[in-house]
Amino acid sequence: MLTIRLYVFQRKVITVSELIQINNLTIKANTQTIISNLSFDVQPNEILTINGPSGSGKSTVLKYLAQLQSPALTTSGDYLFKGKNAEDIDPIELRQNISYCFQSPTLFGETVRDNLRFSYDIRNMDFDEELAKDLLSHVQLSESYLDKDITTLSGGEKQRVALIRNVQFRPDILLLDEITSALDSDTRKIIWEWLNQYRKENKVTVIIVSHIKKEQQLADRIITLDKIGSDESEENHEPA
Ligand SMILES: Nc1ncnc2c1ncn2[C@@H]1O[C@H](COP(=O)(O)OP(=O)(O)OP(=O)(O)O)[C@@H](O)[C@H]1O
């Protein structure tokens, strides 16, 4: 008689509640310490704000999270993304999941369309023109902007094109570094209302660096950086 033995291996299920865990992060430029022993986590779907005086390292931390820091900087500490060591993740994959929006973005190609289409091209996908027009309307730009020459765009228009370039493939985490600094307060308000809606609907975690109080107040949690070796009397410029 044939006996069949069934071996059932129980799979160990590892649940990672934090999207990001940073432990004892230190960032240095030669002898200058920019960030010293910083530890924090990022939870799914939250809005986190990184505050601190000018030069305290806010942008440096955001760039580090997207692994876009300058090669001139040395870093130490642990960086886990979804429980995996960030250094072991393909940098392109990491940046598709963690998307960094610059205050002064670099646009490429000739037109706005070139900038939006690029992400489709690298994925071998057809450009979704309807989605692009919809996103343009959410950032208060008409669909005619698709064929605008990028050299004719204002700073605020460039910021908005870069923003929708970053959101169109729904990253897990959106890092927003002073992204409305060149916008008037009405446009800024409209864009934030949309962004807030967008992030809730798409379950996108947002990390904000901003000098604008109203944007800082959107946060569920705030991380405040101290300026290392800063002069206590230094002025912190904050527009109302
Ligand atoms: N590649 C680099 N090489 C040398 N120093 C750097 C480099 N990148 C950043 N720093 C230094 O690190 C410090 C923090 O810069 P960072 O731009 O992160 O500050 P911040 O808090 O974002 O400032 P701000 O609010 O003015 O934008 C600054 O003193 C800056 O000169």
From TrEMBL:
Q: Which residues form a coiled coil?
A: none
User: Which keywords accompany this UniProt record?
Assistant: ATP-binding, Cell inner membrane, Cell membrane, Membrane, Nucleotide-binding, Phosphate transport, Translocase, Transport
Alphabetized Pfam families for the sequence? ABC_tran
Q: Where is the ABC transporter domain?
A: 20-240
Q: Provide the GO MF annotations for this entry.
A: ATP binding; ATP hydrolysis activity
SMART domains, sorted: AAA
One GO BP annotation of this record: phosphate ion transport
Q: Which InterPro entries match?
A: AAA+_ATPase (IPR003593), ABC_transporter-like_ATP-bd (IPR003439), ABC_transporter-like_CS (IPR017871), P-loop_NTPase (IPR027417)
Q: Which PANTHER family match?
A: ABC TRANSPORTER I FAMILY MEMBER 17 (PTHR43423), IRON EXPORT ATP-BINDING PROTEIN FETA-RELATED (PTHR43423:SF12)
| Name the UniProt record assigns to this protein | ATP-binding cassette domain-containing protein
Q: Which organism is it from?
A: Ruoffia halotolerans
